[in-house]
Amino acid sequence: MNETTITAQPDTPFIDVVREFDATPAQVYRAWTDPDLIPQWMGPHGFTMELIEYDATTGGRYRYVHRDADGEYGFRGVFHTVVANKRIVQTFQYDGRPNDVSLESLTFEDLGGRTRVRTRSVFPSVESRDGAIASGMENGLRDSMARLEKVLTSQ
Amino acid sequence: MNETTITAQPDTPFIDVVREFDATPAQVYRAWTDPDLIPQWMGPHGFTMELIEYDATTGGRYRYVHRDADGEYGFRGVFHTVVANKRIVQTFQYDGRPNDVSLESLTFEDLGGRTRVRTRSVFPSVESRDGAIASGMENGLRDSMARLEKVLTSQ
């Protein structure tokens, strides 16, 4: 399995994620934006995902809910920029922390048949970033990346 | 005239703006979101403003162009959250720096007939924030706030 590198330097509001996939940018991008594929990988192991809205176009918006036996967790945001197979800039909000809206920039880099995905999330404060880390988002992210790899392999 | 306080701590990606107005939150909010009023104050002295789109609702988007004798400068973004008279969270992009999308959180605080507006902008990197400062955005912001005060006084 490919590695997921998550970097959160102290005293900054950034979280950086780098992950490579053994698939083309078009394949990875499709899994990242197709409402039929997203619920197959997005979120931690053991959760179901309901996609309420997912319009991955510039100016579009998304909303989804993760559920497990303990409860449900809603997320939403808007897409500032969507360039197919290349780049996504979107906002991100967990309903439980509505004042901690973050901005995520994703790039899909062509490594010649393989793809490197880079994500930079920036939060409105260092405390807000630290809160996201404390909520366990790193594990959820690693789970998601592993699940996405499986989806890409099975296609 | 009320003072505009702009804070940009070194080595952070934040710009904070605080400005009070001798008007109610409803009046300030209206000037901030009404497509007929915005071109009367937004932007530096000496520029005209063309509002191409300005849908200040959650999930809406905006686009406008500032023009002077030297050229034109386009801006666009999406509204993540809009709560009338209280709070706006929106993305912001200058067309000349499309990779430096920032996220702005505005609050309209009721001081009893007067209003304190706070804006926090967060950029995807410290360099990107420094670039925005170097581009002269502080002067444009001070001009805008002074012009907005005039619009509010004349109503």
* CATH class division of chain A: Alpha Beta
The CATH architecture of chain A would be 2-Layer Sandwich
Class per helix and strand makeup of chain A: alpha+beta
Number of domains of chain A: 1
Described by its quaternary structure, the protein is: homodimer
Strand order of the largest sheet of chain A: 1-2-8-7-6-5-4-3
Give the N-terminus to C-terminus distance of chain A in angstroms.
16 Å
What gross morphology of chain A would you assign?
Answer: globular
How many β strands of chain A by DSSP?
8
CATH superfamily heading of chain A: START domain
Helix content of chain A: 10-25%
**What do we call the CATH topology of chain A?**
Alpha-D-Glucose-1,6-Bisphosphate, Chain A, domain 4
Low-confidence stretches of chain A: none
Considering residues with a beta carbon less than 8 A from a beta carbon on another chain, report the largest interface and each chain's count.
Answer: A-B, 23 and 23 residues
Helix segment tally of chain A: 3
Strand content of chain A: 35-45%
Q: Over all CA atoms, what is the radius of gyration of chain A? A: 15 Å
Mean pLDDT over the full residue set of chain A? 96
